[in-house]
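Ticket #4471: complex job returned nothing on first submit. Input attached below:
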Amino acid sequence: MKTLKILISISILSIFIISCSSSSDDEQSTIPEFDRSAVLSNYADNIIVPRLNNFKSSVDYLKESGDAFIDSPDITTYTELHNSWLEAYINWQYVEMFNIGKAEEIMFFSKTNTYPVNEGRIQENINNEKTNLSNPNDWSCQGLPGLDYMIHGIANSENEIINQYIQNPLNGKYLKVVLDELNNNTDLVLNDWSTYRNTFVNSVENTATSAFNMLTNDFVYYFEKGLRTNKIGIPSGVFSNNPLSTKVEAYYSSKNGIEDVSRDLIENALNAVDLVFQGKSSNQSPAGPSFKTYLDFIKANNVSADDIGSIVVNKIQTANQKILDLNKNFINQVENDNSKMLTAFDALQTIVVNLKTDMLSLFNVAVDYTDADGD
Amino acid sequence: MKIKYFKLLLLALPLLFISCSDDDDENNVVIAPDTYEFTRDGASTVSFSGQTARLNMADEIYQALNTNTFTKAQLLEMFNDGTGFSDASLNSSGKQVGSKTASGCSHGPLASTKARYTSMLEDFADNVIPAWTATAANGQAGLLTDSARSINVNANGWEVDQTFIKGIIGGMCVDQIVNNYLDACQLDSGTRRADNDNGILASGKNYTDMEHKWDEAFGYLYGQEADATRADLGTSPTGNGTTLNKYFKKINDSNEPGLASTVFDAFKLGRAAIVAGNYDVRDAQANIIKINLSKVVGYKAIDYLESYMSKKTATPADAIHALSEGYGFILSLMFTNDGTGSPYFSEAEVNSMLSKLSNFWTVQDSDLTQMANDIRGRFNF
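Support reply: We reran it on our side without changes. The output follows.
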């Protein structure tokens, strides 16, 4: 009799226990599991590594043309150097978001694209013949913005700039240091992928340090900070009280009338985001496993009513239109009609909400960065 | 023996149910205190001095827009930099109104909308002040007078102190409460939930970050109350200041008696829920606050549109004053929150309404009636 009572009570208890756990089991069992590794494989093999190779080629070309210019500074070698700088800067837009693995370890994106540059410190570095640029204070003295200053900013016109290199060999020396640093960093990041690739594609668990979670966070962080804030938000004054036209990307090339490239850079950056989001290696290639197919998968299983994947794709189109409405020279755009910059900012910001709030919560990925907020 | 056994089993039942619920709800029962007072180790954990500072700043900017003695640089300094105020304690507070305008974390910075606020200040300095005693007309800033009042308007007929400050009610006060501090993007940001669960306090403070975020929301509504711990704060808000609390009190006294208590009770219970680590209760209270504070904006937008139409023949200046208030409340509509995370009217919908209100000299009654009806419908008034 006593045993029976215990049996009954155990069975009643187990009903409760079963009813507790079964709800979560049901949720999981009705949703087939999405293959996160397929996304990482597609990203690694068809997007990240090819893009890094592409960037590496343009950095090689940049270094070659830099060496040629340093050897004999004239308008021909100068033009070649400028063109190769632009090509590298455009290709950079396709890799900045992958701040993972070796790139994160060596602060690749800070070293390659911190702007505005610190003009005074660059001048000191030139005069001191500085060769070691590992100090974080030198992030704003190197990379593609550092080269923008060295190629377009040390004087106010092409001829004066070329003259500076003819008259003062220290300029050429520092230019070479910056080119070598960029080249070495690019080699480090690219070469590491040959071994990192397999770790990367299999690191799909839902933890703060898994490759999937980190890459997803990197992508959202890049979109919010590297793209929205740095390219549009800061120069248009969204984060300050007044517009700050000197903070546009590739400032010196526009300022000294060499070539207006700021808009080209963000156009490519947005295209780079679009391709990653849809899992395409190029605009012509078919869509592969990606953030979008993951969102589509979740949508197909009715967890979410909103079609976030399509919403983001459409909003990227809209944002691209707003960017195309801008003058190619962002300094002029900010100084003469900043409202269009704000409109472009708003178009990008609405995507931030979809990525950071909607997508991350649907993926159940925690945001690994916090915005500073005062009280 | 048998009966005793089943009694025990019955007693155990509620325990089992509790264990079934979400992890977050380990302390299921949340009891709200009588007043908005919360302590840890005998010391208060409630702080919202930054909100009080910003509300006082908004009041001073409003006063500045009622005189012709400020320059554009001074107005922008007060708004953007948080300095240049007559109250020296504000200048050293380190707070700004501008950085908290149209910037709730759930939607992020709305750059074009924020520019509406700075444009109003610039327009006031550039165009309204130089025409301080001119006669206002369509396209001409100046003075507009009737038997009820005398107002300074811009070239489009806006009384800028009103369009601005009513816009701030939504763009700062409501937005910071419903789309920022009561949203997961603040309350649960980073490690705040785990920190709250584990009693980890903000650096050098007596509160957890989550507790503080909730109090900051509270502060945007009650920050100018002389005593926010009084027992009748819920039933009798003072209406102090020129922003949200003023209209919160008005709605509680007219359109919807009891609304103030509903909001206050939700603030108390939600804060107690944070102390208890019960986030379902917390979020339910947040939604009550979001919906009810949004209603304040909805009611006033309708009131002022209709008030304009009823006054415009007999007292045109008084009517334009009302329409200016209405403009600001309509601007504020995009910062409301219906409890699902969406505003009652989107930014695009508000922009479309504002474009119909861009020139008060040519505004159409049919448009105003349509807007009032749309708002009534959306809020279910």
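The first helix of chain B runs from residue 2 to 20. Closing as resolved unless it happens again.
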